[in-house]
Amino acid sequence: MPVSAECESRCSVHLESARIVRFKNQFHNLKNILPSHFAGVMLASVRGGLMPRYERMLTDRQWRQLAPLLPKLRGGPKGGRPWADDRAALEGILWVLKTGARWRDLPSSYPSPSTCWRRLALYEQLGVWDAIWRKLLRRLDRRKRLKFTECFVDATFASAKGGAIRLAQPAGVKARK
Question: Which pLDDT belongs to residue 163?
């Protein structure tokens, strides 16, 4: 029995509505266990609509302390496109690091994923992350929040390809002159 075009369109609208309702229910179940900024990712429309604007990850006070540690970015001698906002780029980097998401999943409220990734690499190259880390440690130390009596060390070890690492000379090897 052939299906009329009107019936087919009604069915597809009903199925799409059911999908959206099911998606919303799943989101409401998840939002109680996920941090609010990450749960916002789940709000992306099933139909490909725009994602919601995200709250700032850094407070204004935190930003005032970090801003002087970032390099002053200047345009080239020929001009060109202006640099993306430092705070927005830093928050985009922090969003990816905090959520564990892929760069291409970065919400549109931040600069482009490639911009944030390049800024991450630039900050690493210029030692910005080390400067931020040192400033944080100094601040915690002044507040007596660090305990130097306890230390944890983490490392990864990989054995050499083809066998164990030899620390001593094997028997029978002559010393070089």
Answer: 61
Tally of domains in the chain: 1
Instruction: Give alpha helix (H) positions in the chain.
Output: 5-31, 36-39, 60-66, 86-99, 113-125, 128-142
Alpha-carbon gap, residue 158 to 162, rounded angstroms: 12
What pLDDT is attached to residue 67? 95
> Has residue 35 been placed in a domain?
no
Token pair of 98 as six digits: 């905090």
What is the number of H-type helices and E-type strands within the chain? Answer: 6, 0
* Ramachandran class of 132: left when φ > 0, alpha when ψ lies in -120 to 50, beta otherwise: alpha
Q: Would you say 54 and 109 are in contact if contact means Cβ atoms under 8 Å apart?
A: yes
Report the distance separating Cα 93 and Cα 99, nearest Å.
10
pLDDT band for 41, please (50, 70, 90 cuts). very low
Domain of residue 120, residue span: 56-70+83-146
Query: Is 6 domain-assigned?
Result: no
